[in-house]
Structures are given as structure tokens and as C-alpha cells.
Amino acid sequence: MENYLTKEEKMIDTPQELIDQTISKVESFLKEISPEYVSYDNGSFTINFGSSQVMIIVRPFTENETCVEIVSNVVTGANITPELMKFLLHKNSEIHFGAFGLLFDDTITFQHSITGTNLDKNEFETSLKAVAIISDYYDDEIINMAGGKRAIDLLSEDFE
Q1: Rounded distance, CA 39 to CA 107, Å?
Q2: Which tens digits make up the pLDDT trace of 53-93?
Q3: Inter-helix orientation angle 82-94/121-146, to 10°
Q4: Out of 89, 119, 132, 151, which could bridge 53 as a Cys pair, Cβ 3.0 to 4.6 Å?
Q5: Judging by beta carbons within 10 Å of its beta carbon (0-12, 13-18, 19+), is residue 132 exposed, middle or buried?
Q6: pLDDT above 80 (res 157)
Q7: How far is 56 from 54, CA to CA, in rounded Å?
Q8: Average pLDDT of 13-36?
Q9: Where are the beta strands (DSSP E) in the chain?
């Protein structure tokens, strides 16, 4: 079988090189968008927005692609009821970018993922702001419905 790959396609970087390139790109965007971001040794980042905290994590996706996950732990310790789950699922069908989820410890999250190797600043900024704004808005609504604590409440407890 003949090889139909172009010269450019044959010059694929290793998965770790792709991850490192994506991390560098994300950090350069963050310097412009949110200069008060926090960077961690593993190539992840956090920003605070209102009462929410948003994590940006670069992960491998395929051999030739990375994934940029933008995640916020919206509410921890809420009373998870069928009504709350129905509310979150309805919101998932209405919101354009991202979706609510539930972690193993019943922490309610909001997350949006995008591919990273061809990521541009506008795409990244739109995704980041969508997660930050939605998390900041809905944390209060969820707490009013089901109790729990927002990210800022948990961060405040850490400093007490």
C-alpha cells in the first residue's frame, strides 16, 4: 500500500512535544487575557473569576492532537436531588459552550473542552470566559436550590 501522507504530515511532533507546545500557547494567551493566573508545574493553570475558580488543563487526546480542558468546580456539598439533576440537564441543553457534570464526591462541575494543537486566542478566550461566567452565575442559583459551597467559600476556609 502506497503512503499518501504529505511531507508536513510525516513531520508530526511527539505527543509530549504537542502537549508542551499547547501549554506554551495557553500560557501566552493567559498572559494577555488574565495576567493574574496561577501556573502549576504540571502545565495546568487556574484563574479566579467572581466567586468561581477555573482550571485549565492540557491533556493528550490523540497521537496528533491535544485537548484543553477548562473546568470549574461550581458547588461542593450540595444536596443532590432529582430536581437539581433535572435543572442541570435542562441547562446543559440550553447552554452553547460546555456542560454541567457531577464528580465522584457529588461536586457539581462545569466544563468545556477544545482541541489544542491549532488553538487560537479567540477560541480559547471564548471558552474560558464561557466557563467562568456560567460557573460564577449558576453557583449562586444552585446553592439557593440545594445548599453547598462555592469555590470562593472553600478558598476562604483554606485561609482561616
Answers
A1: 23
A2: 999 999 999 989 999 999 999 999 999 999 999 999 999 99
A3: 150
A4: 151
A5: buried
A6: no
A7: 7
A8: 92
A9: 38-39, 45-49, 52-62, 65-75, 99-102, 108-115
Enter the C-alpha cell of residue 53: 475558580
Predicted local confidence at residue 15, as pLDDT:
83
Tell me the whole-structure pTM to 2 decimals.
Answer: 0.86
Q: How far is CA 50 from CA 54, 69, 90, 149, in A?
A: 10, 20, 24, 14
In this structure, what are the phi and psi dihedrals at residue 39, rounded to the nearest 5 degrees? -110, 140
Instruction: Please tell me the distance from the alpha carbon of residue 44 to that of residue 56, in angstroms, as a whole number.
Output: 6
In 3D space, the residue among 113, 141, 132, 13 whose CA is nearest the CA of residue 57 turns out to be 113
Residue among 148, 150, 151, 153 nearest 84 (CA): 148
The full length of the chain comes to 160
Tell me: the pLDDT tens digits for 107-122?
999 999 999 999 999 9
C-alpha cell recorded at residue 29: 494567551
Q: Which residue has the cell 468545556?
A: 112
Sign of CA dihedral 34, 159, 68, 85: negative
Query: How far, in Å, CA of 77 to CA of 107, rounded?
Result: 6
d(CA 38, CA 45): 5
